[in-house]
Amino acid sequence: MDDDGFFPADVAARYDEETAVMSAPAAVEPAVEVLAELAGESRAVEFGVGTGRLALPLAARGVPVHGIDLSRAMAERLRAKPGGADVGVTIGDFATVRAAGRFGLAYLVFNTVNNLTTQDAQVACFRNAAAHLAPGGCFLVEVGVPALRLLPPGQRVVPFHVSEEGWSYDVYDTATQAMTSHHVMVGADGGGRHRAIPFRYVWPAELDLMARLAGMRLRHRWADWSRAPFTSESEGHVSVWEKPPE
To answer: How far is the C-alpha of 139 from the C-alpha of 217, rounded, in Å?
Structure first.
């Protein structure tokens, strides 16, 4: 792993193509609608802004957006896009790095909270989010529910994508909540490449406790960006915690 973490230049160059489904209007527009409503007339800060999948359309809606990201390579991709110059980026670990000023909304999407691979780092992230927020501001996290129900006794691996172009699977360690996502991509020439990214999976109730430790309280929890109810069958959630007004 280099200074750009798990998103160096070669990964950044392929990132938008490999996440094209998540960049389609059907995925982006509901998310931007929720984020714009929560931000209101305030500024927003995105933890793990990446190449600007949500930051750019949110800024185009008139919400001033600032991003924090460890990867300079990803930030360069953002800046090169139309409107990229309007989104400021602070380089660093979003669990600890501060962007200047106060914000009405901080948000962390696409399972990126799991990129923090220790509980201490995830707790620090919530405290950092609260420190960015003005009183009454909100912190939003989009993340999957750990798929442990798919693990029969003795099994640690859950495949989640299989195609002629490659396959992906997660390897779980239920004792430590560690998880590694493996991606095997097959090229047109028949050659392949493998990429592995470590994560720490986290439960909704655990996130609620992290928010309480940071002085925030749960305001919303939905199954997805459509604001469908969160149930025991939900595979993910969009949760919003509020910093109390003064």
So the answer is: 10
Percent of the chain as helix, strand, coil, to the nearest 5: 30, 35, 35
Phi, psi of 31 (to 5 degrees): -65, -45
Alpha-carbon span 133 to 243, nearest angstrom: 7
Cα gap 202→151, rounded to integer Å:
16
Please give the pLDDT value at position 122: 98
Residue 1 predicted with pLDDT over 60: no
179: left (phi over 0), alpha (psi -120 to 50) or beta: beta
Please name the residues in contact with 198: beta carbons below 8 A apart, sequence gap of 6 or more: 117, 178, 179, 180
Distance CA 211, CA 108 (A): 13
Could you give the C-alpha distances from 152 to 148, 158, 163, in angstroms and in order?
Answer: 9, 10, 24
3-state secondary structure of 20: helix
What pLDDT, on the 0 to 100 scale, is given for residue 48? Answer: 98
Taking only Cα atoms into account, the Rg of the chain, rounded to an integer number of angstroms, comes to: 18
How far apart (Å, rounded) are the C-alpha atoms in residues 20 and 22? 5
3-class secondary structure, 107: strand
Given a contact cutoff of 8 angstroms between Cβ atoms, the answer to whether 142 and 54 are in contact is no
CA 234/CA 37 separation, integer angstroms: 23
Q: Whole-model pTM above 0.90?
A: yes
